[in-house]
Predict the 3D structure of the following.
Amino acid sequence: MDGITETAGEKLKKVLDDTQAPPEKCIRYRITNGGAELKIDTQDPLDLAFEFGGRTVLIVDTVSAETVAGLKLDFKDGGFFLV
């Protein structure tokens, strides 16, 4: 994964703020057998991390990052997708 759009960053930060997630928590993007999963989690040292608004908002494990290399996470019409 090459990054996140500003719209996705805003939405990820809002989710973390709305759930009152502590600073060490962020949203993990992970490829699964059925597609992709987003969940609040703690960063692993090997994770790829993306920041927005002064905090880490998205983390991606190395295998998932390789699978979606060259793409960015975006948010539109109520959902996240890759562009």
Observations:
- The CA atoms of residues 7 and 75 lie 6 Å apart.
- DSSP finds two helices and seven strands in the chain.
- The longest strand covers residues 25-32.
